[in-house]
Specification:
Layout: H1 9-14, H2 20-26, E1 30-35, E2 52-55, H3 60-66, H4 70-82, H5 89-101, E3 108-113, H6 132-145, H7 148-157, H8 163-193, E4 202-205, E5 211-212, E6 218-219, H9 226-229, E7 233-236, H10 252-259, E8 277-280, H11 290-299, H12 303-310, E9 313-317, E10 321-326, E11 329-334, H13 347-350, H14 352-363, H15 365-368, H16 385-397
Parallel strand pairs: 1-2, 1-3
Antiparallel strand pairs: 4-7, 5-6, 8-9, 9-10, 10-11
Helix pairs in contact: 3-4, 3-16, 4-6, 5-8, 6-8, 7-12
């Protein structure tokens, strides 16, 4: 579709004055970021506001996972069997340890984006619970099921892998979470050794969860169920108590600016919807688009699957009742009684007041505005080998 890795750059840079890193930098904070995420890169504009921006990208694993070249495939299998490689976390920790050991003449704000809990779910030893043979099978299955085309097809047809395949994915995911727990301990120890931990507010969160066969879904697309939307949020250190009751990651910049004592910041709580809102934009154009028709023919999609391919989704919840709008059709769920969202409620059963609050959240200007539509995307730069490689990585990770 001609989407470039640089498409986000003008959007991010246009919002410079609202980015937390820039707000804190102007208030005297030293700002640094470490990213192991191909999408969160200098090329896509996410270095904006950071004095130091370090990219710890492991380009080998995704490329080996989906390549047809025999040499890369063999390296992919050997890497899975050895279980020594990660997706940038170890290098990111080394960077943070170096920063922590430096003199601290001013307060600092660090942002770290890791992808260890992302597919292909192959953590390093000792966090890889599967034996070498199981890891090799999981690597082959990742090549088959976790490339972008297979991921889309699975989610729209709801034909998930068989249970043994899913369980190997879950095992890797659990191991990746354990690895991240140990990784965090390593970073906290570095801050403690530098005498900075007691004065540092540490926040751990995620941008989404994962599906492993629930409802025929894998990964984190084509759905706004609670397994994807209800993410962990843990805070410890000075000011952590002022983060109690937070309901959405959209609230974080304003809360942190207030904790940091920034006298004037651009975050007005009234600009946010009254309830947390999540959105999923359909990745394919309308049903009549030739590209959509080619996908329908290639995957032999029935009418329901084709509709899922092009249907946007929006959702909001008050913590008890959830409203999902799927292509203009409302669905209500009782999360206390039905946390897996298997049985829809009639609007009348929700109650007029509750239904009105949920609808008002989805109708809020912040929930309906699309920044991307107001900024012209940058043209693709296929002649730049570095950008071409980044875009290949993003496709393999499911971002393009």
């Amino acid at each position: 579709a001609g989407v470039s890795v640089q498409s986000a750059r003008p959007i991010v840079e246009a919002l410079r004055d609202r980015l937390l890193a820039e707000v804190l930098r102007r208030s005297g904070y030293r700002t640094g970021a470490v990213s192991a995420n191909t999408w969160v890169s200098t090329h896509s504009g996410f270095a904006t506001g950071f004095e130091r921006f370090v990219e710890r990208l492991d380009g080998g694993r995704p490329a080996q996972m989906s390549t047809e070249r025999l040499g890369d495939r063999l390296r992919w299998m050997a890497s899975a069997a050895r279980a020594r490689s990660d997706d940038g976390a170890a290098a990111a920790a080394a960077t943070l340890e170096q920063w922590a050991a430096e003199p601290a003449p001013a307060p600092f704000f660090w942002f770290v984006n890791l992808v260890e809990c992302h597919s292909p779910y192959l953590p390093p030893r000792p966090y890889a619970a599967l034996r070498a043979g199981g890891r090799m099978r999981a690597a082959l299955e990742a090549s088959e099921w976790l490339n972008l085309a297979s991921f889309w097809r699975t989610c729209v047809t709801r034909e998930a892998p068989e249970e043994p395949v899913l369980e190997r994915m879950r095992s890797g995911y659990r191991g990746a979470i354990a690895y991240m727990d140990a990784w965090l301990g390593r970073v906290l120890e570095a801050l403690d050794a530098a005498g900075q931990l007691e004065d540092t507010l540490v926040i751990v969160s995620s941008d989404h969860g994962e599906n492993f066969g629930e409802g025929g879904l894998i990964g984190h697309g084509f759905s706004l169920d609670e397994r994807l939307m209800r993410v962990p949020f843990v805070a410890a250190g000075p000011g952590a108590e002022r983060l109690e009751g937070i309901r959405s990651l959209a609230e974080v910049p304003g809360r942190l600016a207030a904790i940091a004592g920034v006298p004037e910041h651009p975050y007005d709580p009234s600009e946010l919807p009254p309830l947390p809102v999540a959105q999923f934009d359909s990745p394919a154009p309308g049903l009549d688009d030739p590209r959509t028709q080619r996908a329908i023919a290639l995957w032999n999609l029935d009418e329901a699957a084709a509709a899922r391919l092009v249907t946007p989704i929006a959702a909001t919840t008050d913590g008890t009742v959830k409203l999902v709008v799927r292509g203009g059709r409302e669905e209500f769920y009782d999360l206390e009684r039905d946390p897996s969202e298997r049985e829809q409620l009639a609007a009348a059963a929700v109650g007029a007041d509750a239904a009105a609050r949920l609808r008002a959240a989805l109708a809020h200007p912040a929930a309906t505005a699309s920044v991307a539509r107001r900024v012209e995307p940058a043209p693709a730069a296929a002649e730049d080998p570095e950008l071409a490689e980044l875009e290949d990585r993003m496709r393999l990770l499911g971002y393009l």
